[in-house]
């Protein structure tokens, strides 16, 4: 079997509350107690089993509509490598702190018994979401970039698919300060055609872009997710994080055939960050 279409199911009246949804593949052994109820994500009481849910198999963001896979590609189900359990992670935006809200939003999956020729995969590329991602206040045009390095891609592709993988759609993702995102593709030091771009990024309209032509990523290629922000109306530093008032710089690549690579991201160097904000010397306590 294969999933061939995914569409969001957003509870009526909650269209502005549901910010984005991620569907993860989990480990193969979950206890019944874990399966009974949902849990707050990244909370200390979150079950340890949820930590095995690391492989993104689909992503949706606010403003997006349904997505259909190409006729030759599907999200495989039923083989030992396919998901036995999945985790649905829903991110909410509730700036007015409304209380007592109960939400039943999610994703509707359409499948077929006809096996597709290729199994689809997802790679999350860009900047690792962390406080090390800093954006100064009061700037109309500030840029951050996250790297999917040639070393990372070479190791993954050489081991499984030396002939490369084929990207057919991309979702670009940032938050409220985002104004533009580009996914750049390099091979042997030369820049290839842009994989995807949105130079007029709108936080309220984020969905997968189908590529006009599939683009091949080979061992030794590297990717840069470049994000442009406007913080002119902000008086304080903007940090990387999960809140919509924090920021992200991510791209989700849908591709085939599936390989064992789910995340290819970089994190800013903390020493460079400290120098950027004017820290000249760090004193370490004597022990």
Structure description:
The chain has helices at residues 32-36, 150-160, 270-276; strands at residues 2-9, 18-25, 55-61, 67-68, 73-76, 86-92, 106-112, 118-119, 121-127, 134-135, 142-148, 165-173, 178-187, 190-191, 196-198, 209-217, 222-229, 238-239, 250-256, 263-266. 33% of the residues are buried. The protein contains three helices and 20 strands. The protein folds into two domains: 1-119, no CATH class; 123-277, Jelly Rolls. Helices cover 8% and strands 40% of the residues. It is mainly β and 287 residues long. The strands form five sheets. Strands 1, 4, 5, 7 and 8 form a five-stranded mixed β-sheet that branches. Strands 16-12-19-9-20 form a five-stranded mixed β-sheet, with helices on one face. Strands 11, 13, 14, 15 and 17 form a five-stranded antiparallel β-sheet that branches. Residues 3-98 form the Copper type II ascorbate-dependent monooxygenase N-terminal domain. One of its GO terms (molecular function) is copper ion binding. Keywords: Copper, Disulfide bond, Glycoprotein.
């Amino acid at each position: 079997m294969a999933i061939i279409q995914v569409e969001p199911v957003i509870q009526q009246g909650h269209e502005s509350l549901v910010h984005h949804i991620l569907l993860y593949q989990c480990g193969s052994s979950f206890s019944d107690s874990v399966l009974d109820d949902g849990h707050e994500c990244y909370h200390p009481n979150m079950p340890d089993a949820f930590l095995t849910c690391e492989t993104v198999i689909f992503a949706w963001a606010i403003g997006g509509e349904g997505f259909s896979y190409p006729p030759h590609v599907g999200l495989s189900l039923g083989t030992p490598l396919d998901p036995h359990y999945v985790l649905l992670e829903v991110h909410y935006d509730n700036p007015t702190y409304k209380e007592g809200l109960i939400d039943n939003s999610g994703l509707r999956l359409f499948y077929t018994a006809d096996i597709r020729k290729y199994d689809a995969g997802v790679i999350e590329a860009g900047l690792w979401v962390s406080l090390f991602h800093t954006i100064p206040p009061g700037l109309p045009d500030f840029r951050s970039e996250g790297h999917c390095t040639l070393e990372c891609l070479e190791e993954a592709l050489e081991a499984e698919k030396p002939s490369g993988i084929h990207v057919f759609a991309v979702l670009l993702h940032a938050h409220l300060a985002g104004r533009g995102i580009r996914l750049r593709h390099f091979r042997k030091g030369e820049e290839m055609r842009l994989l995807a771009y949105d130079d007029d990024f709108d936080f309220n309209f984020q969905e997968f872009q189908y590529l006009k032509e599939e683009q091949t990523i080979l061992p030794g290629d590297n990717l840069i997710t470049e994000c442009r922000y406007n913080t002119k109306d902000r008086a304080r530093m903007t940090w990387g994080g999960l809140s919509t008032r924090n920021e992200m710089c991510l791209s989700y690549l849908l591709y085939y055939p599936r390989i064992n690579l789910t995340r290819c991201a970089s994190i800013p160097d903390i020493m460079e960050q400290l120098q950027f904000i004017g820290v000249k010397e760090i004193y370490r306590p004597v022990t």
